[in-house]
């Protein structure tokens, strides 16, 4: 039987600013098995990034329970949480969050170096991943010397280089033209098949969403999941 990568039950998120509160997530249930891919769609402000941050253990839910790879992250120390993220999770943020003073190669190698890999080997792996996202010719450029779409592809390479169990991606192809967006989705499918990597991808593009196993619609804080067959 496939391992459970994500299991969350009854997740609520309420942002409290002074006397103003915003109820963003309402009783979200989600189960994702190893090797499954899920697209999350929903209008702007519906809580997609909020949910992704909670799933990635970067933010806490207001209530509800969650395990990632069978582990209740809230039970871990801060150091153990950081180590867990480095070993199991890959992030592609809505805004790329690259380190501006480092090259594409150094940015991509970073998760491997943090995980303890030797610099030489990390650079070989990072360089191969940059090649796969079509940036083999730009590895020594810094983010300020790259286009928006190229930066996004560096961020994608950085998230995938350590071959994580689960990749969480927030609009990973938002800055890309159709061809480069398709290349990224093909890469997602390739890694999913060869390494059984699970993906949760926030996107506005239903055509790209259809390339994943399931689509979840986030509407007024409620998450509804459909398989592609049900949508078609
Ligand atoms: N730190 C915060 N404090 C208060 N409200 C917040 C905070 N972060 C997000 N929100 C609110 O929560 C709601 C969901 O935000 P979120 O960023 O998750 O939306 P989203 O679905 O990712 O939108 P987009 O498609 O525009 O990226 C929004 O109404 C936003 O204003
Ligand atoms: Mg967002």
Automatic annotation (TrEMBL):
Compartment(s): Cell inner membrane
GO CC terms in record: plasma membrane
Enzyme class: translocase
Pfam family, one: ABC_tran
Top-level taxon: Bacteria
InterPro entries documented for this protein: AAA+_ATPase, ABC_transporter-like_ATP-bd, ABC_transporter-like_CS, ABC_transpr_LolD-like, LolD_lipo_ATP-bd, MacB-like_ATP-bd, P-loop_NTPase
Gene Ontology biological process terms in this record: lipoprotein localization to outer membrane; protein localization to outer membrane
PANTHER family from the UniProt entry: IMPORT ATP-BINDING PROTEIN, LIPOPROTEIN-RELEASING SYSTEM ATP-BINDING PROTEIN LOLD
Protein family: Belongs to the ABC transporter superfamily. Lipoprotein translocase (TC 3.A.1.125) family.
Protein name, as recorded: Lipoprotein-releasing system ATP-binding protein LolD
Origin species: Pseudoalteromonas tunicata D2
Protein encoded by which gene: lolD
């Amino acid at each position: 039987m496939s391992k459970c990568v994500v299991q969350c039950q009854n997740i609520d998120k309420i942002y409290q600013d002074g006397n103003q509160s915003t109820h963003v997530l309402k009783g979200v249930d989600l189960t994702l098995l190893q090797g499954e891919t899920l697209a999350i769609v929903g209008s702007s402000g519906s809580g997609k990034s909020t949910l992704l941050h909670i799933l990635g253990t970067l933010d806490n839910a207001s209530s509800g329970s969650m395990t990632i790879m069978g582990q209740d992250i809230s039970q871990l120390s801060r150091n153990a949480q950081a180590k867990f993220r480095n070993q199991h999770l890959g992030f592609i943020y809505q805004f790329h969050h690259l380190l501006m003073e480092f090259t594409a190669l150094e940015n991509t190698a970073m998760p491997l170096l943090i995980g303890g890999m030797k610099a030489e080997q990390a650079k070989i792996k990072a360089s191969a991943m940059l090649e796969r996202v079509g940036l083999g010719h730009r590895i020594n450029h810094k983010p300020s010397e790259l286009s928006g779409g190229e930066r996004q592809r560096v961020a994608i390479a950085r998230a995938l280089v350590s071959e994580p169990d689960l990749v969480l991606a927030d609009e990973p192809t938002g800055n890309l033209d159709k061809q480069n967006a398709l290349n990224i989705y093909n890469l997602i499918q390739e890694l999913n098949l060869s390494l059984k990597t699970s993906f949760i991808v926030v996107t506005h593009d239903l055509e790209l969403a259809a390339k994943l196993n399931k689509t979840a619609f986030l509407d007024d804080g409620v998450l509804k999941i459909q398989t592609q067959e049900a949508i078609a």
